[in-house]
Structure formats: structure tokens, C-alpha cells
């Protein structure tokens, strides 16, 4: 989408985000020291309207093109990887909330449309069927940005009275019903505050839950009131993109810093040769930039293709949904490969605390271990489908 065709309100968000980038970069060390994105950064991003990009218009949202959302995330991560990561995973949650029953949407945004949610989707909690809903309990890890949120989305297996698993659901839980346990002491994505969530047994009404089986079919009760094509895209396409995009942004920031550093660098080991005149350095830059561009182009093109099917009222082919995941995991790898190549070619100065490059290297490799970046599983599913084997569309 060009600037001319993009809604003015969305363009204003992108412009506002870009204006913030120098400030976010200056706060990157503070985010690492605090182990959480500074409150001021969240507040300033909120003021740009960033967190409303994927929010329903009924609740003051912009219902923006997901590519515009990814563009903003990429830019934020190019200034600070941790801020980009938190912005992405917190900023995408309004998209899923829009699929919940409207009673749940009203509970979240009815009084304050600035309310934010964090998440932890791995089904490490347990839910038991009961009259009118579920009894939920458990412990969840890696809830990025949870300190800036007043609700959380939690994955849980649903058990019947006989102890059999009958569903896998997302549960929407208000802040007063869960604890945040500070455990986030890590070497990468240190500023994301990805702490644990603990829920003692509590009742969750059915309207505040969403079956992942239904979500896998691109369905949800909220579609009755949020009719935009935005909310008909596959969950696993939208959400896994929020994991790869910050890593692409980190690579973009690393690339910019590497080029700037090499323009000034004199290589003592090579008789004072200027790094900018080294033909091998130029090759590495070209190779890294191609990997970054390819990762981004495939992410955008695949989402565009899914949008085209939705706009025509067609079911999105399973092959395309699997291709989205194929290119998403490989997109993360491409971006990380680019960062590795740039980091290795940057010389000792890149090791200094405070440089973007060393932080991007740590942050990107930390992001690589997220479950959404598990390459073998996603690639195996794509290959199996090509061989004609049956693949569960609910997973993609």
C-alpha cells in the first residue's frame, strides 16, 4: 500500500512511530537495565495510535491493513529490539479480541479503549468444564509486556468430568485474577519483561473464551459485529508474522549501523585500509541486504495473497496457509543470518555495550527460540502437504 492509498489516520500512526525512533533507540539500554520496556515508551506509542492499528472500529480502532501494522513493528524494532517485540505481540492482541463474543470485547474496551492485553498461548494451564464456562488454573511463561497490560490471553486444554481433553481454548483473564511472577533474567530480549503468569482456580465465562479449533477455521463469534475482512484472516498467519517482523526489524537496524560503522572504520590489520573500500565488505553488505529484503517481501506478498482470497469471499487454500508458515520461519532465519554476517564483519567495536549491533545479535537469537520459529515442524508440514499427506488446517 502506498502513502497515497493508505488511510490518513494510519499514515499518521506510521509517521508518529518514525518520529519516535531516535528516542526509542536512546532508551534501549534503559529497557535492558529495567528488564521491561520503559513506561514512557509505551505511553508515547499509545499516543501515536499504534496499539489501535488492529483494533475494531467499534472500539475506536483503525482496522488497519496488517502490512501497515507489520511496517510499524519493523520500524520500532529497528530502533530497539525489545520495544519492537513487545509492541508486536501486545499490538496484535486486539485482532484476536475482535474474534471473541462481544460481551468480552465490551469488558475489555467498554470503559477505556486504550486497554492492552498480553498473552501466553502454550496450553500449560488446565481448564475444566463447568456450568456457564470453565474453571481455569495454572502457570504460563513468557508473557511479554505483561506489566503494561490489564488483561491476559492464556492457552489451556479443556478437560471434561472424566478427565478427557475435549478442546484447546484461549481464555481472557482480567488483571485481578492473575499474578505476575518476575523471572525474566536473560541475555536476549532482556527488555521485554516476559514474565510468568499464575492463575489460582478461577471461573471464566464461556463468552470470555475462544476455541482454537474454531479459530483455525478463520471463525469467531466476534465476526458477527466486526465484519471487516481483516478479521477473516488465519490466526496462525497473523500471529506468527508478529514474531518474524521484529526480527526483520532488528536486522534492518543492524544493517544500518553496520554500514555506518564501516564507512568510518580503518582496518589496522590491513595496513590502514578503509573498510568501505574493501570489496569483500561490499559483498557481505549486498548478501545481508538481500536476505533482509527477501524475508520482508515474502511476508508481505503472502499476506496480500491471503487478503485477495478473503476479498473474493473464497476459502484460503491450505497450501497458501502452509506457505505462509514456511516463509515465516525461513524469514526469521534469513534475518538472523543477515545479522550474523554483519556482526562477524563489523570488527571489535561492535562488541561494545550500547551498540545496536551486539544487542540485535542477542535479541534476534533470543527471538529465534520462540515456538513460532520452529523451522522443522513448519517445513515438514509444508513438505508433507506437497506429497499429498493429510495436514490439519487448524494448526495453520
From TrEMBL:
GO molecular function per UniProt: monooxygenase activity
Record bears the keyword Transcription regulation: no
Residue intervals of the Acyl-CoA dehydrogenase/oxidase N-terminal domain: 12-109
Keyword annotations from UniProtKB, A to Z: Monooxygenase, Oxidoreductase
Domain named Acyl-CoA dehydrogenase C-terminal: residues: 243-374
Domain of life assignment: Bacteria
Pfam families per the UniProt record, alphabetical: Acyl-CoA_dh_2, Acyl-CoA_dh_N
Family matches, as InterPro entries: Acyl-CoA_dehydrogenase, Acyl-CoA_DH_C, Acyl-CoA_Oxase/DH_mid-dom_sf, AcylCo_DH-like_C, AcylCoA_DH/ox_N, AcylCoA_DH/ox_N_sf, AcylCoA_DH/oxidase_NM_dom_sf, HsaA
Cleaved signal peptide residues: none
Family: Belongs to the HpaH/HsaA monooxygenase family.
Protein name (record): Flavin-dependent monooxygenase
